[in-house]
Putative endonuclease (Kordia periserrulae), 104 residues
Amino acid sequence: MKTYYVYILKCKDNLLYVGMTNNLERRVNEHTSGFNKNCFTFSRIPVELIFYQDFNDVAQAIYFEKKIKKWSQKKKLALVEGNYDRIQILAECRNATHFKYKNE
């Protein structure tokens, strides 16, 4: 059974990069060495692996990667810290048109 990893790298400019691979060590080494000049991290090395989660199902890994790529940096950092309560708070809609704020 193959293992797939969704990972977060912290770049030298403090931006976060989210990726997925089936070989975490190799992929982090590629990011670190500047293997691909077209990669987001190429001009942002050094990078540091700050989070990864493993999956046995590639579809679940792809789903999770796409999901967290859309998150704010604060929400991604809460995931890195394992602060799931903060993720929930940051996920709440604060828009004035949200149903919680409408007078009924």
Summary: The first strand starts at residue 4 and ends at 11. The helical segments are 24-33, 58-69, 73-81, 84-91.
